[in-house]
Amino acid sequence: MKRKVLLIYTGGTIGMEKDYETGSLRAFDFGNIFEKMPEMKLMECEVFVHPFEKPLDSSDMGPEEWKVIAHYIRKNYDEFDGFLILHGTDTMSYTASALSFMLKGLTKPVILTGSQLPIGDLRTDAKENLLTSLYYASLYENDKAVIREVAIYFEYKLLRGNRTLKYSAEYFDAYASPNYPILGQSGVHLNIIKENLYRPDPEIEFHVDDHISEDIIFWRIFPGMNLNHFKEIPEMKVLILQVFGSGTIFSSEKTMETLQQIRNNGTEIVVVSQCISGGISFGKYENSNIFSRIGAISGKDMTAESAITKAMHLIGNPNYPGSFAENFSRNLCGEIS
Q1: Are residues 158 and 224 in the same domain?
Q2: What does the pLDDT read at residue 180?
């Protein structure tokens, strides 16, 4: 039996072609993808295409678009065996992370991919990314999906979506998962490392929780930063601080006073690391103890993208009993070690 995969095209470089009169890139009609890539007709799965009415640059993708994708998957969940989302590369990790929190009890593959060069270029990476993503999106054993989570496939590697970050704007190998091993790798054989795959609670039936709050600010700490600017921050529910190393910040009475004032205003403070690899460890150095004293929340080894979307999903979400701090510290879908 041929598996059915729903391909959702949101926009991005993968769906572009060059206008040879102007030299500019423009979106082509993705409904004609089978003409651009006749190889897709040779796949061992049936592919059905649903393009966004207006293709979006990934910089225009946000909470409303995440909800559209999540609900479209829900609407078609019973009809299809897997889902492939074509997406621009710049914010793909944000979308993958957000969907991992919104799609509860997922038992089918949801794969995101894109490309660094348009599908019509001679040297494009688009075709390999697209074709292999379709294999992963339709991979079943004993009538059960092998992948039951949101993942990104890019340049021969399958990665957990909420563990990824885009680290190169130049190379085809654009994505990394520094704090979690790869889920699979394609070469002569299509390999899956099963012990690395996420397995959802079988008691949870698939559903969408589309709660997203935008009442959040992300701030990167830097040497010599003027903390007086913090007082100009409007009241918000969550402040995510990206700090040095394993959780340090400049030690001064001013730092303590400013952060404590933010906490006293009812703002939760989440701490993530500026390092690509590793994570937060309060107490490792004296200059991290300030966060324990003010009741900040450790982002552990989460990526910034995952921490941001997780916080957006949890703020004021009635479906999570307990405090924000308790829920943020929990491993919801493989986003923290």
Answers
A1: no
A2: 98
Enumerate the known binding-site residues for substrate: 58, 89-90
Cα–Cα nearest to 98, from 237, 306, 320: 306
Q: Region 154-161: what's the mean pLDDT?
A: 97
Stretch 274-296: mean pLDDT: 95
If phi over 0 gives left and psi between -120 and 50 gives alpha, with beta otherwise, what is residue 131?
alpha
Using the 3D structure, point to which of 162, 186, 208 is the last residue of a domain: 208
For position 83, what pLDDT does the model report? 98
pLDDT for 18 equals 72
199 and 272 part of one domain: no
Interval 231-239 mean pLDDT? 84
Same domain for 290 and 314, yes or no, is yes
Among the listed residues 306, 273, 61, 58, the one whose alpha carbon sits nearest the alpha carbon of residue 164: 306
Range of the domain at 281: 216-329
Q: Establish if 335 belongs to a structural domain.
A: no
CA nearest to 232, candidates 244, 219, 243: 219
Judge whether 309 counts as a catalytic residue: no
**What is the Cα–Cα distance from 117 to 124, expressed in whole angstroms?**
5
Give helix 92-102 / helix 63-76 axis angle, nearest 10°.
50
Q: Which residues are annotated as a binding site?
A: 58, 89-90
pLDDT category at 15 given cuts 50, 70, 90 is confident
One of 13, 95, 124, 267 is an active-site residue; which one?
A: 13
Residue 315: CATH number of its domain: 3.40.50.40
The per-residue pLDDT of the chain, averaged, comes to 93
Same domain, 24 and 172: yes
Residue 91 designated active-site? no
Predicted model pTM? 0.95
pLDDT of 27 reads: 72
Catalytic residue among 89, 95, 124, 267: 89
Residue at 336 is within a domain:
no
151 and 225 assigned to the same domain: no
Whether residue 66 lies inside any domain: the answer is yes
Q: Which of 208, 225, 258 marks a domain boundary?
A: 208
